[in-house]
Every structure is written in structure tokens, then in C-alpha cells.
Amino acid sequence: MRNQWFEKWGWVYRPIAWPGWLSVILTLAFSAQVFVAVDRHSHSVSDTLYGIFPYWVPAFGILNWVASKTSAKLA
Hints:
- Helix content is 64%, strand content 11%.
- It has two helices and two strands.
- It has helices at 18-40, 45-69; strands at residues 6-9, 12-15.
- A hairpin with a 2-residue loop joins strand 1 and strand 2 (12-15).
- Helix 1 packs antiparallel against helix 2.
- The protein starts with 5 loop residues before the first strand and ends in a 6-residue tail after the last helix.
- The relative contact order is 0.21.
- The mean pLDDT is 92.
């Protein structure tokens, strides 16, 4: 039996075990740190959005991939 970290919840995955919660918290902490670092040197909202995009999309993409691989398979 496989360990399940996440469960499917609509279009997203919800953490149900401590490794799932840890991966969500680490991803959010990384995203917040990137936002603060990029926003410090930005002159506008669009500068901030263009600056965080290359970091946030892969981070949340990896989190989604991990969640899909560690969730229960639907029958």
C-alpha cells in the first residue's frame, strides 16, 4: 500500500498527511520569499508579475506533479 500525501479535491489536490502539508508550506514559503525579493526591485505591478512568473509557475507545477503522484488513484 502506497503512502498518500494528497487527495483529489475538485481540480486541485488537498494535503492529507504531514509530507503533503510540508511540501505545501515549503512551496508557499519559497513563493513568498521570491515575491519579496522581486518586489523590492520592481517599479510597477507588471514588473513584479513578470519577475515572479518564472519562479512561481515551476514551483506550483512541481507541487502539482508531486500531489498527482502521491494521491489516491480514482477507480
